[in-house]
Design goal:
338 residues; alpha/beta; 6-stranded mixed sheet; 12 helices; binds pyridoxal-5'-phosphate
Length: 338
């Protein structure tokens, strides 16, 4: 696998390795050893998981002499914000097609959080309805090409085989850390949506160990088969990058029971999980991704649906830049289960 990763240009954007910390108090409350991999600390304009993908994607863009980057996301996309920061870092023009796909009826949704940061980071924002995204991209690509610019398009979430290499690399980094600490990581749990994080982790862990599973928490897609297929396809796309991977067997495991009312809609478990981790450990997670996955993990362990005798590692994928936009979610009365 070392050669798989070395075969692709990579621009350093992240603070690595991110810390791996023991959650002693949460673990005691749950009766399980729980660790947290702090990918919220990757450091790029408030950090998050897209930064590792962007190290490879921006590396690829520069290798192709790109002048401008176009990418997609929801209005409050963390991926869009990290792409804006990465482009600023290397001097690429950045265009964000931000789609109104989430119903969160608060005025801050369109002006605060990640959108505010996108603007500060010098990106060009193109907000539109989901049905207009393809046309917006087409018009924009035409306009940039006519101006003589080479355009590099990054898919939503940075999830293609190149981007997912960032999480193959993360699996390697994490397993180095667990080996050094004498841990036996049995289960990695994280929020999954566009699938690149999970696909990279599946490939990276399978390459290095036989007994570490990856469980994605579906925070995004009400079409369960679609998200499973997406992650599966990405693992196969990564396999296609290197003959070293040809004999490996990748298996995709996704929990669909904690999506609640859908993408961008926190559940009671989400809010309770966010409060619990914040109060016990001083670590903040977000209501769209990391906190939703954390709330799911807490409820799965509590209900005996995760039978972990070894160490569980929760991957904090970031997202906290969105917090102020979701003030109303925290103001609601919530059932506290601690
Ligand atoms: C994008 C994102 C995820 C999901 O990662 P994918 O690779 O898109 O599945 C999880 N958490 C946060 C905070 C994100 O921004």
């Amino acid at each position: 696998m070392a050669t798989l990763l070395e075969g692709f240009p990579r621009v350093p954007l992240a603070h690595l390795p991110t810390p791996l910390e023991r959650l002693a108090r949460l673990g005691a409350a749950l009766g399980t050893e729980v660790w947290i991999k702090r990918d919220d600390c990757t450091g790029l304009a408030t950090g998050g998981n897209k930064t590792r993908k962007l190290e490879y994607l921006i590396g690829d863009a520069l290798g192709r002499d790109a002048d401008a980057v176009i990418t997609y996301g929801a209005i409050q996309s963390n991926h869009a914000r990290q792409t804006a920061a990465a482009c600023a870092r290397v001097g690429l023009e950045c265009h964000l097609i931000l789609v109104r796909s989430v119903h969160w009826d608060h005025p801050e949704y369109e002006t605060s959080g990640n959108v505010l940061l996108d603007d500060l980071l010098g990106a060009h924002l193109h907000k539109c309805a989901p049905a207009e995204a393809a046309k917006t991209a087409e018009d924009l690509t035409g306009e940039l090409s006519r101006a003589g610019k080479t355009v590099y398009v990054i898919p939503a979430g940075g999830s293609n085989a190149i981007g997912a290499l960032g999480y193959v690399q993360c699996a390697r980094e994490l397993l180095n850390q667990t080996t050094a600490l004498g841990l036996r990581p049995e289960l990695l749990v994280h929020a999954t949506s566009s699938g690149g994080t999970q696909a990279g982790l599946i490939v990276g862990t399978t390459e290095l160990t036989d007994d570490c599973r990856v469980l994605g928490i579906n925070v995004y897609d009400s079409d369960h088969a679609a998200i499973e297929q997406r992650v599966h396809n990405l693992t196969e796309d990564i396999r296609g990058l290197s003959s070293e991977l040809s004999a490996l067997k990748f298996s995709v495991a996704i929990d669909h029971d904690h999506l609640g009312d859908g993408y961008g809609q926190p559940t009671e478990d989400t809010i309770a999980g966010i409060r619990q981790l914040a109060e016990l450990h001083g670590i903040v997670t977000d209501p769209v991704y990391s906190g939703k996955a954390l709330g799911a993990l807490v409820s799965l362990i509590r209900d005996g649906r995760i039978d972990a005798t070894g160490d569980v590692v929760f991957i904090h994928t970031g997202g906290v830049a969105v917090q102020s936009v979701y003030g109303a979610a925290f103001a609601r009365p919530t059932v506290r289960k601690v």
